[in-house]
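In response to reviewer comment 3 from the previous cycle, which asked for concrete evidence that the modeling workflow produces usable outputs, we include below a single protein chain processed end to end. The sequence was submitted unchanged, and the resulting structure tokens are shown without manual editing.
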Amino acid sequence: MTINMILLMAGLALFYFLLRKGIKRIIFSIGEEKHIDKKRILYVNAVVNFAVVLVFIIVGSVLLGIDYSHVAIFFSSAFAVIGVAFFAQWSILSNVTASIIVFFFFPYRVGDNVKIVDGENSIAGRIYEISLFHVMLKNENNEIMTYPNSMVFQKAVIINPKDPLPPSLAQTETPAGELKSNEK
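The workflow returned the following structure tokens.
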């Protein structure tokens, strides 16, 4: 390994850590700006960091001179195993992707009254939590209902429907046991 290769890998490592820190700062600032639960911010940050690590592993392997075909075989084999693992539950991957999109672009957040319009199977409640896989709603009977994130994209969501929940649900308890005021 030459000194140039060592310097190149050190530069790549430095760029990786700076990029990771920048991405983390952006994700946390968006999360704070949108008043998103810290747990959900950490979910999104972990998924984005995983993608960045994969990219840098590929780039580092190519820079080290590992034959591109060997890298391609390794990653295609890994993705094949992951694909088989997710095949029965392919919606798991779509729910994770949907969770990332919900984090950055959707207008509702924990504490909002929503109605998910799904014909006769419509559900309404106050958003209790938005996790990596589900949007959790609490209805007027304090029952917690889960709805897959990927399905939120396929159905209309009405924020603050005309038939709001009773005032007894004006505060929502988070899964961590903290009380959140839903007053805006």
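The longest helix spans residues 3-33. We consider this sufficient to address the reviewer's concern, and the full set will be provided in the supplementary archive.
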